[in-house]
């Protein structure tokens, strides 16, 4: 298995790079690893009559890898420009665009990624306000469009003046690096889990309301309408809560 680090920061040895290196240092043989420092690659957008050879090179490295570790700082509440520019230039290579302009996963489908970002904002402020959320959302949106499956995300707040990583963050990065040594399942079972959740909710609601029926709390005349509406409303609300905490609310500390 090959792990590819993609570093989209201005500094090759800054805290973003250090977080990325901590992850990759835990990747052991026979697994392979490589780092792309985007500042070293003068890529430009493809034109109608010519493809950019630098993008050809980067695209091949991404195709050869099984997992991407994408690392870039958060500036002004958004993803660092170098990585965003790379995503913009790679857009038509990462997805298939149909005749009406809709995007579809293509050659990178079912690869996996781990994302890393950091910011000057303090730990508590980032936890409350989610300064780094937009960076993660940008990465997630690009990866989702390309059909790349998310593994995890790591955040490092309070980096102003930081020279070395906190020990807790080093250990966290190493743990996730160690996990990359093992083969990763290549299918996203999110839909399956939501279907299983629906049937669990339906069964528990039936059991609960059945007990209420035998206790005389609810009548048989309106049992099934109550049951159906309860299952649907409860499942929708639970799904929204789970979506918020697993997708919308990103790592902030």
Give the mean pLDDT.
92
C-alpha geometry: globular
- Give the proportion of residues in helices: 40-55%
Largest sheet: 5 strands, parallel
Order of adjacent strands in the largest pleated sheet: 2-1-3-8-9
The H-and-E topology, N to C, reads as EHEHEEEHHEEEHHEHHH
CATH class of the largest domain: Alpha Beta
Helix count? 9
Provide the structure class. Answer: alpha/beta
Architecture of the largest domain, according to CATH? 3-Layer(aba) Sandwich
Q: Name the poorly predicted regions.
A: none
Query: What is the CATH superfamily classification of the largest domain?
Result: Flavodoxin domain
Reported by name, the CATH topology of the largest domain is Rossmann fold
The number of strands is 9
Q: Please, how many domains?
A: 2
State the distance separating the first and last CA atoms. 30 Å
Portion in beta strands: 15-25%
Any overview of this molecule?
It is a single chain. With 253 residues, the chain is an alpha/beta fold. The chain has two domains: 2-179, Flavodoxin domain (Rossmann fold), CATH 3.40.50; 190-248. The protein is 48% helix and 17% strand. The chain contains nine helices and nine strands. The protein has a five-stranded parallel sheet, sandwiched between helices. It is globular, with a radius of gyration of 22 Å. The mean pLDDT is 92.
């Amino acid at each position: 298995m090959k792990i590819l680090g993609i570093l989209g920061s201005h500094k090759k040895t800054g805290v973003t790079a250090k977080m990325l290196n901590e992850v990759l240092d835990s990747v052991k043989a026979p697994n392979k690893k490589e780092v792309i420092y985007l500042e070293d690659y003068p890529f430009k957008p493809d034109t109608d009559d010519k493809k950019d050879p630098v993008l050809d090179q980067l695209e091949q490295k991404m195709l050869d890898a099984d997992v991407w570790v994408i690392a870039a700082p958060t500036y002004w509440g958004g993803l660092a420009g170098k990585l965003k520019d790379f995503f913009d230039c790679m857009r038509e290579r990462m997805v298939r665009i149909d005749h009406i302009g809709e995007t579809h996963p293509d050659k990178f489908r079912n690869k996996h990624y781990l994302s890393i970002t950091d910011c000057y904002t303090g730990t508590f402020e980032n936890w409350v306000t989610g300064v780094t959320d937009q960076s993660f959302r940008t990465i997630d949106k690009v990866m989702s469009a390309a059909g790349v499956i998310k593994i995890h995300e790591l955040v490092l707040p309070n980096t102003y003046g930081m020279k070395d990583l906190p020990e807790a963050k080093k250990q966290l990065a190493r743990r996730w690096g160690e996990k990359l040594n093992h083969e990763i399942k290549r299918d996203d079972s999110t839909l399956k889990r939501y279907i299983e959740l629906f049937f669990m909710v339906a069964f528990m609601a039936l059991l609960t309301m059945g007990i209420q029926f035998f206790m005389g709390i609810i009548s048989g005349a309106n049992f099934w309408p109550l049951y159906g509406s309860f299952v649907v409303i409860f499942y929708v609300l639970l799904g929204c809560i789970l979506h918020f905490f697993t997708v919308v609310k990103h790592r902030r500390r």
